[in-house]
Write a structure and sequence with these properties.
Blueprint: H1 3-16, E1 21-23, E2 48-52, E3 55-64, H2 67-85, E4 97-105, H3 111-120, E5 126-130, H4 137-145, H5 171-178, H6 183-194, H7 200-214
Parallel strand pairs: 3-4, 4-5
Antiparallel strand pairs: 1-2, 2-3
Helix pairs in contact: 5-6, 6-7
């Protein structure tokens, strides 16, 4: 078991959603973009860089032996992510992920606790860890994917998550109409919300009256 298996399956999952998916060798570079020399920090081996739709990803192997070893592994992965960011587009940095494939475990350790602690550490980027089940790889992979952005097919690869609000003009009204408001009431609610001045006690009666007037 190695990180290449996880990388291949991630690429296939992204393509199944009709997302563009590619290997990005620059993400695993030993040097920052524009610099000829390797960074003077510890860097991991076996890392694969991917771009899955709008998501840049570092895929790496990890050994579950102790909490201390996991922290050491995360430190060098954080170093790699800092380098990888120099090759990413500005708007996609916020979507960066580290996805780890467990390649070896120490039976006596509390690996569930180690995984939970590692995944909650989002100091450099989000992290998700796959514990492959050698007897049922596909089920364990599906369970892993269910916890990632690849379980959200409604998020198009072309979506820009930090787009200006005016790119979503009319979105709030459409949602309100789907929830049962008339178009006139929805438009008035949006108008009132845009004029909102930190006075909920005054806003609520206006919303109620706007809905009554539009019925």
């Amino acid at each position: 078991m190695n990180a290449n298996l996880l990388a291949e399956k991630l690429l296939a999952s992204a393509k199944a959603l009709d997302w563009p998916a590619s290997v990005e060798e620059s993400f695993a570079s030993r040097a920052f973009r524009g610099r000829p020399d390797a960074a003077e920090v510890s860097l991991p081996d076996g890392v694969v860089g991917l771009r899955l739709g709008a998501y840049p990803v570092l895929v790496a192997p990890v050994v579950l032996a102790s909490s201390e070893q996991m922290q050491a592994s995360l430190k060098i992965l954080h170093n790699q992510m800092v380098i990888a960011r120099s090759y990413m587009r500005a708007e996609e940095v916020i979507n960066a992920h580290i996805m780890l494939c467990v390649v070896e475990t120490e039976p006596s350790v509390d690996w569930r606790g180690i995984i939970d602690h590692a995944e909650r550490d989002e100091s450099v980027s989000r992290k998700v860890i796959w514990m492959p089940d050698a007897e049922d790889i596909e089920t364990s992979y599906r369970n892993f994917i269910a916890r990632t952005f690849l379980a959200q097919p409604w998020r198009s690869h072309s979506a820009i998550l930090d787009a200006p609000l005016d790119h979503n003009e009319g979105l709030a009204e459409r949602i309100l109409v789907r929830q049962g408001l008339s178009k006139a009431a929805a438009a008035r609610w949006v108008e009132l919300a845009e004029a909102y001045s930190n006075d909920p006690d005054g806003l609520i009666p206006q919303l109620v009256e706007a809905r009554r007037a539009a019925e």
